[in-house]
Specification:
alpha+beta, twelve-stranded antiparallel β-sheet
């Protein structure tokens, strides 16, 4: 297990400071704001710790309200909205400097059987073993730029391997632009058989590449274009158990952008082609 993943797992082990009140921290990095996937993952951990055993998260709906300050802890207040016979609902508010920076509603469900179908088909793409790591690909792109090489070389908790072009590549070559992104990802360690942990880590990973799908369509790239952005809202539906220490294909598309916003959708497939998670996110995209 690499140090970045160890640190992430430590960040997800929230401190309980009162009944239904938890405290989380951010990594000690020189960043301007807290990564959205981290806040969503920590909020989901807080909600999950108040839910009876035998109920797995099946959906979450979140809004990013203010940028998170990485220099101070985040307090997560959990409201027990409802505990029904089959479903449990929780609302989480993340607070810094006395103000809400993030809100999330999450629903948990007992395991039941029912009618089944899957219309979504996993894209037929090259396997992850035949693809370079994100680090190796970015180092080739940035060349001798010392600052960018330092950024590209930093350890990451998730091993992400792009089937489709990176935004930096499409920024340089207009023929590579498109509105679809396919990425294999996994966490490089054997993780415990804790369903909530795998769901939380899927939520963390879901925010890494989704907004980039909007940028890819326009040849924009963070750090290479005069573009700024931030996640506005994020929704996920968990259809079946998922293991994120095994390869997952994250198929993403951006059906629309306009009005300084962009919409992106994603589907996470197991290696065998089963649809495990659906994701939708809208982000602010401004080009100066």
């Amino acid at each position: 297990m690499n140090e970045a993943l160890k640190e992430l797992l430590d960040l997800l082990d929230l401190e309980q400071i009162e009944l239904d009140i938890f405290r989380g921290r951010s990594p000690e990095e020189r960043i301007q704001r807290v990564f959205g996937g981290q806040v969503a993952a920590q909020a989901l951990v807080a909600a999950g710790r108040t839910v009876p055993d035998g109920r797995d998260v099946h959906s979450l709906h979140a809004y990013f309200i203010r940028p998170g300050d990485p220099a101070i802890p985040i307090v997560y207040n959990v409201e027990r909205v409802r505990d029904g016979r089959s479903f449990t609902t929780r609302r989480v508010v993340a607070i810094q400097h006395g103000k809400a920076i993030f809100t999330m509603s999450a629903s948990f469900h007992v395991q039941e059987t029912g009618v089944e179908h899957q219309a979504a088909t996993m894209p037929q793409v090259i396997g992850p073993e035949e693809l370079p790591s994100y680090r190796d690909r970015m180092l080739q792109i940035v060349g001798t730029n010392a600052l960018m090489r330092e950024w590209a070389s930093r350890p990451r908790p998730v091993d992400a391997r792009y089937v489709t072009p990176l935004t930096w590549e499409a920024h340089r070559d207009p023929e590579l632009r498109g509105s679809n992104t396919n990425v294999w990802f996994r966490y490089e360690a054997e993780l415990p058989d804790d369903p909530l942990l795998h769901v939380v880590l899927a939520a963390y990973a879901s925010d890494f590449t989704l907004v980039d799908t909007v940028l890819l369509a326009h040849g924009l790239a963070w750090g290479a274009s005069n573009v700024s952005g931030a996640s506005l809202d994020h929704a996920m539906w968990f259809h079946r158990p998922i293991r994120v220490d095994e390869w997952v294909l994250y198929a993403q598309e951006s059906p629309w952008s306009g009005a300084a916003r962009g919409l992106a959708k994603g589907e996470m497939f197991t290696r065998s082609g089963e649809l495990a998670v659906s994701v939708v996110q809208e982000a602010m995209i401004r080009v100066r």
